[in-house]
Amino acid sequence: MIALSHLGIIVKNCELSARFYCENLGCTITGTMANEQLEVVNLQSGSLTIELLEYLETPSSIREAGALDHLAFAVSDIHAVIAELKEKGIAFLTDKPRDAMNGKKIIFFTGPDGERIELVEEKDMSL
Predict the structure, then answer these.
(1) Could you give all domains of the chain from N- to C-terminal order, each with its CATH number?
(2) CA 68 to chain centre
(3) Residue 56 to residue 124: CA distance in whole angstroms
(4) Across the 127 residues of the chain, what is the mean pLDDT of every consecutive 10-residue run?
């Protein structure tokens, strides 16, 4: 069997990014690791692990192709979460959520390193 294990995101500052994801998106830190080249923080969001990677030395290869476009977080009330995040100073890329396929509502904002983050509210969703 093959199943998704985690998503890895390159960040400029693991501590800053971990605090952002924990304080604003309800993630929890489940592990950390550091060596001379790399600092890693694992975050848990539901059943998904997000691996924050802060390279302390320049990686030997530049990663361009295959970059993730965005992270999506499921919410049960998109308008309530938008209001909560706006109170925390989060700026959204659009004024209001838009309708997406299958009755979903979506909206985007950016994280500390410019990564696009999406909130998704599904029709009749219970979290």
Answers:
(1) 1-56 (3.10.180.10), 70-127 (3.10.180.10)
(2) 11
(3) 44
(4) 82 95 97 92 94 83 66 94 97 95 93 93 69
